[in-house]
Amino acid sequence: MLHQNKEVVRQQLLTKLEDLSRRDSRDELIRERCNDPMDQMQNRFEMDLTISVINNDWETRKAIETALKLLAIDEYGICQDCGAEINPKRLEAIPWTTLCVYCQDEYDCTGVAASPPKYRRAA
Ligand SMILES: [Zn+2]
């Protein structure tokens, strides 16, 4: 059950997706080679940081795409793991979330996406 206007949510998701597309951090990975060991260390550190930003963006993009698909089939707001309704406040804060807070906790702790989804809609 969706408490928010579907179109509003869709726009939110698309806007965020656009934001992410505009921000391409890959350019930051291109660096000049330097011989100073301290500079090399600093470079490596910054590179790791950039890579984690890229990973994060990529995960968010994937989540947004999934959320858009779920919106289209009227399953938006339903946890893709347990099938419970996702708290509307949580959806407001993170419109692209596809997991309820309990399943998200589990995911964050184990680092494993609950896949294959335990929740299957009876066809
Ligand atoms: Zn859940």
Task: Describe the fold and architecture.
The chain is mainly α and 123 residues long. It has a single domain, classed as DksA, coiled-coil domain (Four Helix Bundle (Hemerythrin (Met), subunit A)). Helix content is 56%, strand content 0%. The protein contains four helices and no strands. It has helices spanning 6-22, 37-72, 88-93, 101-110. Helix 1 (6-22) packs antiparallel against helix 2 (37-72). The longest helix has 36 residues, at 37-72. Zinc ion binds at residues 79, 81-82, 84, 99-100, 102-103.
Could you give the topology of this structure?
Elements: H1 6-22, H2 37-72, H3 88-93, H4 101-110
Helix pairs in contact: 1-2
The chain binds zinc ion (ZN).
Please name the defining characteristics of this protein.
123 residues; mainly alpha; binds zinc ion
